[in-house]
Design goal:
Layout: E1 3-16, E2 35-37, E3 40-42, H1 56-69, H2 76-85, H3 90-98, E4 105-114, H4 124-135, E5 142-147, E6 160-173, H5 176-182
Parallel strand pairs: 4-5
Antiparallel strand pairs: 1-6, 2-3, 4-6
Helix pairs in contact: 1-3
Length: 188
């Protein structure tokens, strides 16, 4: 019989929207020109301000994976990849974080977005499929919800998007007897 150990972690990320001029171009030419959510391009969405593509969903997912592995990807590692190697695609950050799972398998992911724009519901299935392709799980194991939060925060008032991501990871577990034999008897 195979026994499994289950771990859970939460990740979060947020970005403000890029300031767009009347001509439709970003005020700062270094800013993003399109909105990415879960690795999927949202054609009618305002882009998010970031060094990378600003994909808050994939950044929150990366942070959740880091919560399991204790290896932080966002921050110094992602900044270096972005600035020195020009890697702005947040899918690459997720793939790098996955390398540290060491046999662990993500079995379920849940995302909660807060923002006034864009309306997410027309894109949920495409975003689920995109994320499923990245992390190699069934789209049916990926939940996505969204709220405006009744405009109580800057995200709900339309200044940006915030995402919280929760993941469950399954790892094969040594048989109960082997675990007991290897454990410190003083800890039993």
């Amino acid at each position: 019989m195979i026994l499994y150990d289950y771990e859970h972690a939460i990740g979060q990320d947020s970005h403000r929207f890029v300031e767009i001029l009347v001509n439709g171009r970003p005020k700062d030419m270094k800013d993003n020109t399109r909105l990415m959510l879960g690795g999927y391009y949202i054609a009618d969405g305002k882009p998010l301000q970031a060094n990378s593509d600003g994909d808050v969903m994939l950044h929150a997912l990366t942070n959740a994976i880091s919560g399991i592995t204790c290896v932080n990807i966002l921050g110094d590692v992602a900044d270096r990849l972005c600035r020195e190697e020009g890697i702005k695609d947040s899918r690459e950050y997720v793939l790098l974080a996955l390398r540290y799972l060491n046999g662990g398998q993500i079995t379920h992911v849940s995302f909660s977005l807060e923002g006034r724009y864009p309306i997410i519901s027309p894109y949920i299935e495409n975003i689920r499929q995109s994320i499923a392709n990245i992390i190699q799980i069934s789209p049916s194991s990926i939940g996505i919800t969204a709220t405006s939060g009744e405009a109580l925060t800057s995200f709900g008032r339309g200044e940006g998007i915030m995402c919280i991501c929760s993941i469950t990871v399954r790892r094969p577990y040594a048989s109960f007897g082997e675990h007991l034999l290897s454990a410190n008897p003083l800890e039993l």
